Amino acid sequence: MIMSRVAGLLGLLSGAFAYKALSDDGLRNIADPGDDFDIKSGALLAPILQPRVPGTPGSTAVLNHFVDFFQKELPDWELTFQNSSSRTPISGNDETPFVNLIATRDPPWAGQGHVGRLALVAHYDSKIDPPGFIGAIDSAAPCAMLMYAARSLDAALTRKWSAMEAEGVSELEEASGIQIILLDGEEAFKVWTHDDSIYGARSLAEEWDQTMHPAASTYRTPLDAIDLFVLLDLLGSANPTVPSFFRTTHWAYLNMANTEARLRSLKQLHTSPAHPFLRETNKKESDRWLGGAIEDDHLPFQARGVDILHMIPAPFPTVWHTMADDGEHLDIPTVKDWAKIVTAFSAEWMELDEYLLPPKKRSLLPEPDRTEL
Ligand SMILES: [Zn+2]
């Protein structure tokens, strides 16, 4: 992404969605990531820490890592590839392929077009220059955080939806699902412009805007079905400060900040409470809002009216777009804390409080019956 001098227009105020804060026990039940984010052996993060320029073998290897993870560990998530290709400033007459991966989990009874979704988003491609660039904060670590969030919520989603089904629900009832969107082609190949950047996001937003749900659906298109687009970028350096960028989603920022504060007070985070990540909790209407000043994957979604929560530090971490943005320069306690904060926020959004189980007991309890559709 890039800092732009042009401030964008702010969207219209939009309605708030159902949201229920976790109890203290619920927050304690968000499992600690343990070794998942070890840069050499971490099951989630380590395989992403390699160059993954669109259309190269590294990109395919990382994509396969995501697919393997969902297929083996989270088989109830539906995987979708969204493909496109485009010329770039360095591709001559050839087209470079871009592959977005979307993992979706909806209530099993929900009819197509009746599910609104929390979308958790990061880009998985890496910058072509400098050669060998890893992009650990940009955005290998955010991708791993989203894998962790999906895995941490999966069993609770099953439990909640099984309980709802047992009570009886209609497929026409409005339902809430969750979606992990791993985008390709965020980085510019030469110099960031509107044509040389966010290739994957532009293609996905356009396609989802034009894909019509059946008539009489609650949501007109898959794009319309995104209740909130939470974009993680440049996360994993120590002492980040993430501003609240948009007045229209400040309510969601406040929920995320409250989750962070409560996790800290319950001693569930690893980093110092002296430097909270989300500190613009007293922001006023008349304060300066930076929405639009940072160009990133949210732009084509925002332009089509999607609500955006942009989780990106400002100022950017000092390693940004340098060879120092590698695994060794990640601050792992910060990576773990982001993973827990985003997971807890998502659990609150999906109203999973009583369905999260204490981490230690999880393996001792039988899985609830699953209804296959
Ligand atoms: Zn970048």
TrEMBL record:
Residues in Peptidase M28 domain copies: 115-345
Alphabetical keyword list: Acyltransferase, Hydrolase, Metal-binding, Protease, Signal, Transferase, Zinc
Signal peptide from the UniProt entry: 1-18
EC code: 3.4.-.-
GO biological process: proteolysis
TM region positions: none
GO MF annotations in UniProt: glutaminyl-peptide cyclotransferase activity; peptidase activity; zinc ion binding
CDD domains reported in the protein's UniProt record: M28_QC_like
Domain of life: Eukaryota
Protein family: Belongs to the peptidase M28 family.
Protein name: Peptide hydrolase
Lineage: Eukaryota, Fungi, Dikarya, Ascomycota, Pezizomycotina
